[in-house]
Amino acid sequence: MSAHGSSLGRVTQEPAAQDAPATAARMNTTQRFVLWIAILGSFVAFLDGTIINVALPAISDELGGGITTQQWVVDAYLITLGALILVAGSVSDAYGRVLVLRIGLIGFGVASVAIAAAPTAEFLIIARGVQGAAGAFLVPSSLALITSNFSGAAQSRAIGVWTAMTTSAMIVGPLIGGALVDFASWRLAFLINVLPIGATLVLLARGGFRDTRHADASIDWLGAALCTLGLGGMVFALIEQPNLGWSSPAIWGPLVLGAGLFVAFILRQRFVRSPILPLDLFRVRNFWTGNVATTFIYGALALNGLVVVVYLQEGPGLPATLAGLASLPMTILMILFSSRIGALSGKWGPRFFMTVGPLTMGAGALLLLTVSTEFSYWWQVLPSMIVMGAGLALTVAPLTSAILGAIGPERSGIASAVNNAVARVAGLITVALLATIVGGTLDLEGFHRSAIVTAALMIAGGITSFLGIRNPPREKTDGTSS
User: Fold this and answer.
1) Rounded Cα distance, 369 and 36, in Å
2) Which end of the chain is less packed: N or C, by CB atoms within 10 Å?
3) How far, in Å, CA of 262 to CA of 298, rounded?
4) Residues in contact with 460: Cβ distance below 8 Å, sequence separation at least 6, in sequence order
5) Pairing mode, if any, of strands 209-211 and 8-10?
6) Is 10 helix (H, G, I), strand (E, B) or coil?
7) DSSP single-letter state for residue 59
8) Rounded CA gap, 401 and 99, in Å?
9) Using an 8 Å Cβ cutoff, are 353 and 395 in contact?
10) Is the separation of the CB atoms in 213 and 96 below 8 Å?
11) Does residue 9 sit in helix, strand or coil?
């Protein structure tokens, strides 16, 4: 095991799977255990992401603030998540995946309780920021468990299974969260996080796992502060600009200061001893190209996911439960096909899937232009959800495999963290620009504008993948590369 090798092993069982890679068709006991912990650890963050979109209209109705409150409730989470997810990746590689998972799970649970008890919009926004900081420790460490314990085609298949299972949160979240919003209170919707958090902590405690920690490890906390404050300043300006105008010092001041701090963060990463954003990763073609594609694709997904759920409640007037379940076909297609697509991507390479998938989603987004004042879910929204679901199933597992497969397992934690940070920051920016995109009000015209922007971003992601992604050499049956 190298200095930054896999930090996870079983105390009472065979060595970790990277010492004895399994085939795509078979997982040993340790690998199965690792996969379920990774799934449950990430499930919490995905669950919360679906609940918040369903609950936004009810939150702004009770606590006030309209579309600005809705933007901040989403972006407060994404700011801390996008910034600290990089630190979490470094901590994961340096101190161990299990420690990072435990910190994230406990912090996420505490923040969820605080959100449920929020007396004001300001308190809720702060609690969402804390929740984002905790969430930063969940997804990258979960994916790092997989990349450290699986290799080759088995890794692609495991990521496909992880994708399919965690996507089930997109069914549970709207169904339970929407029912609670409609028939009880949006506050109760955030307490259901406690169940998967408790289950994961129990598995970690009973699994006999241990972490390998490095005495010389150091974390760039100054870099983390620069990144967080830089993103925060720019996002504040983007969200508040429609209210105050670009000429206001309260807008251009934070924008310029935030941009300066973020540039300082990037420059610092070139010279600091232990960077939280290792710039040398971007010398790897599939890694940097995949992250550019991620920026377009996940920015579009965040915009579309928020706009569809909120508009269906505020436009046609659907109840929260039905609005949340409007994208159910996307989720079902993801669950049914992600594992299979992941396996095919490991066999044939990710380029085809990463090209066709986003282009398909772009076409699906354009179908939302059929939504009119004479609203019909079955003829105007459902076709879009089916087409977008097919494209999403084609995209997610190959995209993740292409990016993480381009980087060695000893740096899987930070590679996963960078990709997740890129995805979250992309969503952060599109949500911050929501008022500008929709023209100030999320009416039918604004909804159509959002659909066009979503399609444009998706198409850009597909073109980027086609031009930039390279398929890795195929493995022959005798283990050699072709």
Assistant:
1) 40
2) C
3) 21
4) 296
5) antiparallel
6) strand
7) H
8) 24
9) yes
10) yes
11) strand
Structure tokens at 441: 């009000």
Q: Which residue has the tokens 């905790």?
A: 134
Helix (H, G, I), strand (E, B) or coil at 481: strand
Average pLDDT of the residues in 59-85: 83
Place of tokens 């408790």: 198
Structure tokens at 318: 């659907």
SS3 8: strand
* DSSP string of 190-203, one letter each residue: GGGGHHHHHHHHHH
The confidence band for 334, taking pLDDT boundaries of 50, 70 and 90, is: confident
Map residue 95 onto helix, strand or coil: helix
**pLDDT tens digits along 107-136:** 999 999 999 999 999 999 999 999 988 888
Q: What confidence tens digit (pLDDT) does each residue in 436-472 have?
A: 898 878 889 999 999 999 999 999 999 999 999 998 7
The angle, 0 to 180 degrees and rounded to 10, between the axes of the packed helices 97-116 and 194-206 is 160
- Pick from 468, 456, 450: nearest CA to 358: 456
Q: Which tokens sit at 394?
A: 């084609």
Q: Please name which of 283, 10, 279 lies closest in space to residue 148, comparing C-alpha atoms.
A: 10
Give the span between the Cα atoms of 155 and 391, in whole angstroms: 21
- The token pair that represents 181 in the structure block: 């919003």
Q: Quick check: helix, strand or coil at residue 475?
A: strand
Structure tokens at 260: 């300066």
Q: Is the pLDDT of residue 359 over 90?
A: yes
Residue 442 corresponds to which tokens in the numbers above?
């999320």
pLDDT of 416 > 70? The answer is yes
Find the helix or strand (DSSP H, E) in which 210 lies.
strand 209-211
